[in-house]
Amino acid sequence: MDQCFHTAQQSYSGTPQEDGFAGPSVESDRIESSLHSIQKFVPTDYASYTQEHYQFAGKKIIIQESIENYGTVVWPGATVLCQYLEDHTEELNLQDAKILEIGAGPGLVSIVASLLGAQVTATDLPDVLGNLQYNLLKNTLECTAHLPEVKELVWGEDLDQKFPKSNFYYDYILASDVVYHHYFLDKLLATMVYLSQPGTVVLWANKFRFSTDYDFLDKFKQVFDTTLMAEHSESSVKLFKGILKFD
After folding, report:
1. How far apart are the first and last CA of the chain?
2. Which of the residues 66, 85, 91, 141 has an alpha carbon 20 to 30 A from that of 117?
3. Each residue's pLDDT tens digit, 107-117
4. Tell me, how does this one assemble (predicted)?
5. Strands (E), 103-200
């Protein structure tokens, strides 16, 4: 296993996991100390967290998850999007690409994009930023060319103040399983549109569960030139590429 993941063998409380790692080394202690010194968001104190293991970009990735919040669970669309990024890294030209993930949740997609060389900004609601940043640092600190950034993003709110177009440009907007039964779909679409500039590509993977998911897709197609890039019938996940239509 790569050295940069040795610190990920422990939960946030510092309890060793039973995966063959005997205990913290001097090096992992040093990295752990660095992690705490730069982490500005604190994970919510849920009753239980689990450590889930994933394998992407030739790395073992360990994600701290909790079923107590939708935003602290890896959903099916995330793994599909991760696999697509890994399989098409050169085609997508991810090295040094500027990427923003909408609704990053526990951070798996942002971690994979970072490991593949991208400059990543992971965004979500305030209550999940602590766990998101924890997972990002645990899996990317001293492993990536660009340490991913974590920012609060409430869909449709204060976009021009927090992400002014003159200062922020993204090659890719990533989103996975952000469309489900909630009341903020119009704000989500408005956020995707706002963050898209000439040359920006939206990659959106979603498990299609409800009729409202297809309603959102119809609205997405009205404002984005849309291509179906992958479809997984066993999980009902579809992956779309969208490029904003400019008048």
Report:
1. 50
2. 66
3. 999 999 999 99
4. Interacts with members of the heat shock protein 70 families; these proteins may possibly be methylation substrates for the enzyme.
5. 119-124, 149-152, 172-176
When divided into structural domains, the chain yields a total of 1
Residues in the chain: 247
Residue 45 pLDDT: 72
For residues 192 and 188, what is the distance between their CA atoms, to the nearest angstrom? 6
In a domain, 7, yes or no: no
Domain assignment present for residue 90? The answer is yes
Q: Which residues contact 128 (CB under 8 A, 6 or more apart)?
A: 44, 69, 71, 72, 105, 106
Q: What is the CATH number of the domain that holds 158?
A: 3.40.50.150
Domain span at 97 = 34-244
pLDDT of residue 19: 41
Per-residue pLDDT tens digits for 70-94:
888 999 999 999 999 999 999 999 9
Whether residue 65 lies inside any domain: the answer is yes
Q: What is the pTM of this model?
A: 0.85
Task: Using CB atoms within 10 Å of the CB of residue 76, give its burial: 0 to 12 exposed, 13 to 18 middle, 19+ buried.
Answer: middle
Q: Is 185 within the bounds of a domain? A: yes
Q: In what order do the strands lie in the sheet with 119-124?
A: 149-152, 119-124, 98-102, 172-176, 201-207, 237-244, 224-232
DSSP-derived letter for residue 90 is: H
